[in-house]
Amino acid sequence: MALAPSSSGSEPVIAEVEMKNAGADQAATTVRATVVQASSVFYDTPATLDKAEKFIAEAAGNGSQLVVFPEAFIGGYPHGCTFGLAIGNRTAKGKEDFRKYHAAAIEVPGPEVSRLASLAGKYKVFLVMGVVERAGYTLYNTALFFDPLGKYLGKHRKLVPTALERVFWGFGDGSTLPVFDTQLGKIGALLCWENKMPLARTAMYAKGIQIYCAPTADASPTWVASMTHIALEGGCFVVSANQYCRRKDYPPPPEYTFGGLDEEPSPETVVCPGGSVIVSPSGTVLAGPNFDGEGLVTADLDLGEIVQAKFDFDVVGHYSRPEVLSLVVKTDPKPAVSFTASSADGEKGDDALQA
């Protein structure tokens, strides 16, 4: 285990593809993975990107090959914000809060994605970054993946935003459930409480995930138990990253207020205590949980442990009963509107468009 407190060229080609250049004979046997536990600079995406680079540089300096950031690190997780919502009513301030939150989100692809790809290439790391993705006027809770060559690999959009998240984040679909075959092993991610969805987890297991990333905003005492269960169930390493946030990491009142509390918290009040953790396929906690502050949580992952774990329990292999229980995953995009054009003879042309 290693727990370290933080010390505080040309653009790559962006292509959303799964890596296919890493066979079993090329794969690493031990991977040094680092979780970054830190807060965003809320409403300030350029400053958040600068902060991310400092942590990436520090992790790379410690020999890390994989760096995983929390859910919604770029764009920010809006702890305590209600966006002025009550049933049947939205306040003017709440609408302005959403306008600013929308402005802090990023487009994928876009300039911020290009910078993140450049950082992955500069520091030679695989990078998993939680972002708030802006697609038109709808926002998504998204994880982005980058390789050490400075290439953007693809994204995962959270399937089901949790509770009040559903009023400011849209729903992902099965077209963004990737597991990338990399030189470090097969890497993918589910976000926060979609890790509690058994069928979503099973889809990841069926894709052969070895390093299961779980960016989150959940710092509850039961989260480590959930991560341990997933590691045991999937026979994989679980790398979970959460933010560590104080009230002072958000704009002061009245610009930003925390709802549901009897009184406004003091600037030093911890609003998210972290709990980032790395767990092995045997259920052993390798590093963390860190509830002490911002910092790096690092562990060396021996991929040979995966084979040993699968010998005991392979949920989509020898311990499955597909003639009794099976899962169908619909991986086609689900746009709200599809446009089709017909040729003169009444057949569909090739210029079908989707929105």
UniProtKB/TrEMBL annotation:
<dbReference type="InterPro" id="IPR000132">
    <property type="entry name" value="Nitrilase/CN_hydratase_CS"/>
</dbReference>
<dbReference type="Pfam" id="PF00795">
    <property type="entry name" value="CN_hydrolase"/>
</dbReference>
<protein>
    <recommendedName>
        <fullName>CN hydrolase domain-containing protein</fullName>
    </recommendedName>
</protein>
<feature type="active site" description="Proton acceptor">
    <location>
        <position position="71"/>
    </location>
</feature>
<feature type="domain" description="CN hydrolase">
    <location>
        <begin position="31"/>
        <end position="303"/>
    </location>
</feature>
<comment type="similarity">
    <text>Belongs to the carbon-nitrogen hydrolase superfamily. Nitrilase family.</text>
</comment>
<dbReference type="GO" id="GO:0018822">
    <property type="term" value="F:nitrile hydratase activity"/>
</dbReference>
<dbReference type="GO" id="GO:0047427">
    <property type="term" value="F:cyanoalanine nitrilase activity"/>
</dbReference>
<dbReference type="GO" id="GO:0051410">
    <property type="term" value="P:detoxification of nitrogen compound"/>
</dbReference>
<dbReference type="InterPro" id="IPR044149">
    <property type="entry name" value="Nitrilases_CHs"/>
</dbReference>
<dbReference type="InterPro" id="IPR036526">
    <property type="entry name" value="C-N_Hydrolase_sf"/>
</dbReference>
<dbReference type="InterPro" id="IPR003010">
    <property type="entry name" value="C-N_Hydrolase"/>
</dbReference>
<keyword id="KW-0378">Hydrolase</keyword>
